[in-house]
Amino acid sequence: MPPVAEFVAALPGKPWQGEDPRDKTILVYHESGLGDSIQFARYARLIAAWGGRVVAVVGRPLSRLFRGVPGLQRVAAAGEPVPAFDFHVSFLSMPLLLGTGSEILGGAPPYLRLPSVMAAGATAPEGEGLRVGLVWAGNPTHANDRYRSMPFSALAPILAVPGVTFYSHQLGPCVVDLW
User: Fold this and answer.
1) What rounded mean pLDDT belongs to the chain?
2) Is 49 helix (H, G, I), strand (E, B) or coil?
3) 59 close to 77: Cβ distance less than 8 angstroms
4) Which DSSP letter does residue 89 get?
5) CA atoms within 13 A on the CB side of 19
6) Which residues face 26 on adjacent strands?
7) CB-CB contact of 100 with 81 (8 Å)
8) What is the H or E stretch that residue 14 is in?
9) Residue 1 has pLDDT above 80, yes or no
10) Number of other CB atoms surrounding residue 175 within 10 Å
11) Domain spans of the chain?
12) What's the 3-state SS for 57-74?
């Protein structure tokens, strides 16, 4: 995508290819949508566990949320100065370079927390059993939105699963699908 390609082309240093991250700073950056960054932020803790320092550049709406992601030492919003680093990698490339698969998804500790200013006075959502947050539509102006979003009605089979409480995290115009 042109804005990301321009950003990456302007970065000094080399792309990270999975080298030992010990005592190195790895810059991770978003290359696609906000949801992809959220999905793959969980991998930062693995680089940190191997002795690397991880800094990130994320879409502005995510900058406060990502300041609490385990393994991220510093977070800058897109357009802010890029922290110093030795190597750079996109969020979406980390699973391949770290040699991980779906095993990181099961049993891993939570990696997203409400920022303290947002959590003040917040209570845990009510519900029995598994609690699942859903977003079914992305940015409608995105060039590939028809491949990234679905009608809310397509979730009907999932919403019928017993023992699961669902919560909408949908933003934007598709939030009206709930009514």
Assistant:
1) 84
2) helix
3) yes
4) E
5) 13
6) 54, 87
7) no
8) strand 14-15
9) no
10) 14
11) 2-117, 130-178
12) EECHHHHHHHCCCCCEEE
